[in-house]
UniProtKB/TrEMBL annotation:
Residues 1-22 are annotated as: Disordered. The lineage of its organism: Eukaryota, Fungi, Dikarya, Basidiomycota, Agaricomycotina. This is Unplaced genomic scaffold CY34scaffold_37, whole genome shotgun sequence.
C-alpha cells in the first residue's frame, strides 16, 4: 500500500544545496559603500540653551571643566552669571565701592552741608582729628558723636537701627527719622508725646547712614551716607537732645546769713558762771596737726564769702535716672550679650570713679572744717 503524505518542507530562501566539492574557493567582499543621500546631507546637532532662547551647535557652548562634553548654558548666559557673582561678592565684602578718597572730618561735613538740599550718596573714608575720643570710650559713644555732627550738617535726624560686627570692623547703621516705614514702635507715652509723633511727616527718602569703625585704628572711619529724596529737615520742636547728658538747672544761691559772731567760739567749763573774754580770730593758733586754722577766715572786710552758683537736678530727671538705673541693674544681674556687658562695664567704671571723687571731696572738706 502506497503511503500518501505531505510534501517535504522547503525553505523559502534556500535553493538546492551545493555539494561541497562544488563550493567556491574565493570570496569577494565589498569594502566601499556608495554614498547615500542621508550620509551626505546630515545636519550638525543643535542644542538649546537652558536659560534663554538661543539654539546652536554643541561646539558653540562652553566646554566643561572636566574636558568631556559641553555645558547646556550658552556663553552669553555664562558671562552674565559671572558678572552677577562678582557684583554680589563686592557688595557683601564692601570692597571697591568707595567713591572718594579719604578726607578729614571737617571737609566731609562741609561736603554734606553743600549737598543737604538735594539727593546725595556718599561713601568715603574719613580721618578723625587726634584726641576726639577719650581713651576706652565705648563704641556707641564714638559713633553717636559722629552721627550728631552729620545730623547738624545735613539737618536730618538719624536714629540707630542695628550693629553688625565683622572680622576687624563694626558697622553701626542709622536711618533717617522721617523715613516712611522705619518709625519706632508705639510705646506707652503721654498724650502730648503721642500727638507730636503723629504730626511728623514721613517720606520715602531712602535715608541711611552706616558708620564703620576699624579695630586697629580708631581715627579712621568709613561713612556711607545716602539720602535719595530731599525733604524738610526734622522739626526742632520734636528733636531730643542727643548728647545723652542731663540738662542742669542753675538756681541762684540764696544770700548767706550774716554770722552772729566774728570771733572763734570758746568752751566754758561746767560750773563757771563768768564768761571768758572772746579772743579775736587772728589770735587763734593753728591746730596741732598743722592743717591750718580751726575755722576758715572770712574773706574781704569781714563780710560773707562771694556767692558761688549751685547746680540742681530737677526731680523729674532724678526720678527718670532712678528708673533707668533700676532697669540697668536688673539686666546686669542676669546673662546678657557681650556688647551689652561691655557697655554696662563702662557705666559701672564711670560710676566708681565718680563716687570715689565724691568721697575724696567729702573727706577733704571734713578735714578742712574739723
Amino acid at each position: 500500500m502506497e503511503a500518501k503524505g505531505s510534501p517535504a518542507p522547503v525553505l523559502g530562501l534556500s535553493s538546492t544545496p551545493t555539494p561541497p566539492s562544488m563550493a567556491p574557493t574565493t570570496f569577494e567582499i565589498q569594502t566601499e559603500i556608495a554614498p547615500g543621500p542621508s550620509s551626505s546631507t546630515s545636519p550638525a546637532v543643535l542644542q538649546k540653551c537652558t536659560r534663554c532662547a538661543y539654539m546652536g551647535p554643541v561646539d558653540s557652548y562652553p566646554p566643561r571643566r572636566t574636558g568631556t562634553g559641553h555645558l547646556k548654558v550658552c556663553i552669553g548666559c555664562m558671562d552674565k552669571q559671572v558678572a552677577r557673582k562678582s557684583a554680589s561678592t563686592v557688595d557683601s565684602s564692601g570692597c571697591g565701592q568707595i567713591a572718594t578718597a579719604a578726607m578729614s572730618l571737617d571737609d566731609f561735613l562741609k561736603l554734606v552741608t553743600l549737598n543737604k538740599g538735594r539727593p546725595f550718596d556718599f561713601d568715603t573714608m574719613v580721618n578723625l582729628p587726634p584726641g576726639m575720643f577719650a581713651a576706652g570710650e565705648h563704641l556707641y559713644n564714638r559713633t553717636n558723636k559722629i552721627r550728631d555732627f552729620l545730623a547738624e550738617a545735613s539737618e536730618y535726624h538719624w536714629n540707630q537701627k542695628k550693629t553688625k560686627r565683622g572680622g576687624k570692623s563694626t558697622v553701626v547703621t542709622y536711618f533717617c527719622a522721617q523715613l516712611e516705614g522705619e518709625q519706632s514702635k508705639s510705646r506707652n507715652q503721654d498724650a502730648d508725646r503721642a500727638k507730636s509723633r503723629s504730626r511728623i511727616t514721613r517720606y520715602h527718602c531712602g535715608g541711611w547712614l552706616r558708620i564703620t569703625t576699624m579695630d586697629d585704628n580708631e581715627l579712621l572711619l568709613r561713612i556711607r551716607m545716602t539720602h535719595a529724596e530731599a525733604h524738610p529737615s526734622f522739626p526742632a520742636s520734636f528733636r531730643k537732645s542727643q548728647s545723652g547728658e542731663f540738662k542742669m538747672e542753675t538756681t541762684p544761691k540764696p544770700a548767706p546769713k550774716q554770722p552772729l559772731f566774728t570771733t572763734a567760739p570758746m568752751t566754758v567749763p561746767v560750773g563757771v558762771t563768768e564768761v571768758p573774754q572772746l579772743i579775736p580770730r587772728d589770735d587763734v593758733g593753728l591746730e596741732d596737726d598743722g592743717l591750718g586754722p580751726m575755722l576758715e577766715q572770712p574773706q574781704g572786710n569781714g563780710g560773707p564769702p562771694p556767692s558761688i552758683p549751685e547746680v540742681y537736678f530737677s526731680p523729674d530727671q532724678l526720678a527718670g535716672l532712678r528708673r533707668k538705673f533700676d532697669a540697668m541693674m536688673s539686666i546686669a544681674s542676669g546673662p546678657c550679650h557681650p556688647e551689652l556687658a561691655h557697655a554696662l562695664g563702662s557705666v559701672f567704671d564711670h560710676l566708681d570713679r565718680t563716687v570715689g571723687d565724691i568721697e575724696v571731696g567729702r573727706f577733704a572738706k571734713r578735714r578742712r572744717i574739723s
